[in-house]
Specification:
Elements: H1 4-14, E1 18-23, E2 28-31, H2 33-39, H3 60-72, E3 85-88, E4 94-106, E5 109-118, H4 123-147, H5 151-166, E6 170-176, E7 182-189, E8 200-202, H6 208-215, E9 219-221, H7 234-238, E10 243-251, E11 254-263, H8 271-332, H9 341-367, E12 376-379, H10 380-394, E13 399-405, E14 410-413, H11 415-431, E15 437-446, H12 451-457, H13 460-463, E16 466-473, H14 480-485, H15 503-513, E17 517-522, E18 528-535, E19 558-562, H16 566-578, E20 582-586, H17 589-597, E21 604-608, H18 617-627, E22 632-637, E23 655-658, H19 663-676
Parallel strand pairs: 13-15, 19-20, 19-21, 21-22, 22-23
Antiparallel strand pairs: 1-2, 1-5, 3-4, 4-5, 6-7, 6-11, 7-8, 9-10, 10-11, 12-14, 15-16, 16-18, 17-18
């Protein structure tokens, strides 16, 4: 070539990457136009500039030491072999760069040529850096989500982080109100004038959050001006908003709101932005669920405390009502009132008030979940029709519910607990049919028990007649492994937070306590059938009837009465004496055992369960049954809780009379206890 220097100069100027020629003192001798453009300098302004001035102040000493070490042992170093560096532009901003170094001698003088590449200028590099940046923001929010106990903090921080990370004009969290009819704005940045705390957005598919809720998946808007899927608020267009991205907020599989970001740029959001926003949504959803779970736990603990308190109050109150009702009944029969209609009316009014008090304590026990089972005749068809009507209103409309029940079929069970058991089974069926299906209730008199059920029921199967209630669904069905464990407490196949594993185990416990049995049939893809067998109300045996309205006791029946409350004991003794019994009264279980040791006669033990600090009535009953196998046992209690269970949590083999009770109720209970023995 005629002028090699001119060629070299032309190559230096035309090279697309930034080129810097520096001397051994670390000063720039020459910079090409690409370097001046990248760093924000004019033509020739970099000449004579120290190399360290192009590095952020915090890393200048380290960079100078590295440069000096390179000058002592210069060798080519291509790009990609060193960690990326940060270059400082003339305006103070920073740019991520990668540098290649080459030693160069010109006329015996040592120089270094640095080729500098702006890695952010390459799409794949920009994408990687953007993803790393998003990941850092997600990690930051993750740390905050772990530490924050107040969900309101996250409701404010998430939109702020979303707006900062995505560099958008607005970010908003919409949450559904409990009525699911409208949204409220729970947090946001860049909110419009009509997006205040009091603003409510209808939950309709023609509103932006309502459309997201209906879709149940992310929604991208490339340009609001051409949007037709929902009505775009005028304020969006008035503020120049063009594009948007929204993702649903979920709680246990149900959409509860939406997280939305909005921008004044068209087609602003791609897959990376969607992934980032979904990550924030998941963090926020998990935090809201945790807060709700902690609140529910605290509420449950409060209810448990209230339950224990109300149970204790009910016990004491029922003892008081026993005294009041007993004395009123004795007074009602007193000869002095025979001709005094006014006095008899007052006694009757007091009796009615005491009965209302007893009903109130029953409600307290029901609230605290410490009520006793109350077996009674249940019209199965009527109960199933009522339950089906409720389920049709509350379950997925795609689930068809049918009832087929024999007329006048009655079983003996606690109606409230039976309805609760059937509801538990129906809810499990609903969860097994996410796309809909059919749920059928069948009820009939059982002509012959299946062999495995008869074996489970033992001797009762030969003496009882049973009603059969089957619940059949067309759901996913169960594997053999699941079938084997389905009645175990705390076993569940549902995702975390959606099931306690107690539903079917409580069904099993209720049915067993009601002297019945449960059978389950299921296979994958073939649905599930749960069949409950309960004693018929017209069946023979001890569970068949409450007995006559009046009852005749054997004359002179020897009764061992154990009651720690003096006034209650006095009332019960009056009842027993009026019924013709011979009574030995005791204030404790220990005293009762001592009197038996001394030769006291006993054909019936009538004992309260809670006997103060001494022996419990249930333990006393067990010891008396061991000593006197022919003696009948009748328990009394104004409080139903763990005191009523034997060892291992099983049902006790003795009848229970609830306080307060009237004399005729006591007589009927004694007859039942004697008949059972």
């Amino acid at each position: 070539m005629r002028d090699l220097a001119a060629v070299h100069r032309a190559l230096f100027v035309a090279y697309p990457d930034a080129l810097l020629l520096a001397d051994t003192a670390g000063r720039i001798v020459l910079a090409n136009p690409a370097a001046e453009r990248m760093l924000g300098y004019g033509a020739g302004e970099l000449d004579g500039t120290p190399v360290e001035s192009l590095v952020p102040a915090a890393i200048r000493p380290r960079h100078a030491a590295y440069r000096q070490a390179y000058e002592r042992k210069p060798q080519p170093r291509p790009m990609g072999t060193q960690t990326e560096l940060v270059a400082l532009k003339r305006d103070g901003s920073e740019v991520m760069v990668e540098i290649a170094l080459s030693p160069l001698q010109i006329d015996g003088t040592q120089y270094v040529v640095a080729a500098v590449r702006d890695i952010e200028a390459y799409p794949r590099m920009r994408q990687a850096l953007q993803r790393a940046r998003y990941s850092e923001f997600v990690a930051q929010m993750g740390r905050l989500a772990v530490d924050a106990r107040d969900p309101q903090l996250l409701l404010q921080q998430v939109p702020a982080v979303a707006a900062d990370a995505l560099q958008v004009d607005a970010a908003v969290v919409f949450l559904l109100e409990p009525n699911r009819l409208e949204f409220r704005i729970a947090g946001g940045v860049g909110l419009l004038d009509d997006e205040g705390p009091a603003q409510r957005i209808p939950n309709r598919p023609d509103t932006p959050p309502g459309y997201v809720l209906r879709e149940g998946r992310p929604v991208t808007v490339t340009d609001f001006r051409g949007e037709t899927r929902f009505a775009v608020p005028a304020s969006y267009l008035g503020q120049g908003l063009v594009s948007a991205l929204a993702v649903p907020l979920a709680d246990r599989g149900q959409t509860i709101g939406a997280l939305m970001v909005r921008s004044r740029q068209a087609s602003r959001f791609g897959p990376d932005e969607l992934h980032f926003l979904e990550s924030l949504s998941n963090l926020l959803s998990a935090s809201l669920q945790r807060a709700q779970g902690e609140e529910a736990l605290q509420h449950s603990q409060r209810l448990e405390s209230v339950g224990q308190l109300t149970g204790g109050i009910a016990h004491d109150f029922n003892n008081l009502l026993t005294v009041i009702q007993g004395n009123l009944q004795v007074l009602e029969d007193h000869p002095a009132l025979a001709g005094d209609d006014g006095a008899r009316d007052m006694v009757a009014a007091a009796m009615r008030a005491s009965r209302r008090g007893a009903e109130l304590t029953g409600k307290l026990l029901a609230f605290s979940r410490r009520q006793l089972l109350s077996p009674s005749e249940v019209d199965v068809g009527e109960l199933l029709e009522s339950l089906a009507g409720m389920l049709r209103r509350t379950l997925d409309q795609r689930i068809r519910i049918r009832v087929d029940a024999a007329e006048r079929l009655r079983c003996r069970a606690d109606p409230g607990q039976l309805e609760s058991a059937l509801l538990n089974i129906a809810i499990n069926s609903r969860d097994a049919m996410p796309a809909g299906g059919h749920l059928d209730f069948h009820a009939r008199a059982c002509a012959a028990l299946p062999a495995e059920v008869a074996t489970e029921l033992g001797e009762r199967a030969a003496h009882e007649r049973y009603a059969e209630i089957a619940i059949v669904d067309s759901g996913d069905g169960m594997s053999e492994t699941v079938r084997e464990r389905v009645f175990e407490p705390f076993f569940t196949t549902k995702e975390l937070g959606r099931g306690t594993g107690l539903g079917l185990s409580t069904v099993y416990g209720f049915v067993k306590q009601s002297q019945g049995a449960v059978r389950l049939r299921s296979s994958p893809g073939a649905g599930t059938e749960v069949t409950i067998y309960l004693p018929r109300a017209d069946a023979a045996g001890p569970a068949a009837a409450d007995g006559p309205q009046t009852a005749a006791l054997p004359p002179g029946l020897p009764v061992l009465l154990v009651e720690d409350e003096d006034e209650v004991r006095a009332v019960v003794k009056r009842f027993l004496v009026a019924l013709g019994c011979r009574v030995v009264e005791c204030a404790s279980g220990e005293e009762a055992l001592a009197k038996l040791d001394a030769g006291a006669e006993c054909r019936l033990l009538l004992t309260d369960i809670a006997l103060g600090a001494g022996l419990r009535g249930t333990e006393l009953a067990r010891r008396v049954a061991e000593r006197l196998p022919q003696a009948a046992v009748l328990l009394m209690s104004g409080y139903a809780a763990e005191l009523l269970h034997g060892e291992g949590g099983g049902a006790l083999p003795w009848d229970l009379l609830r306080k307060p009770y009237e004399r005729e109720a006591l007589a009927r209970a004694i007859v039942r206890a004697l008949d059972a023995r």
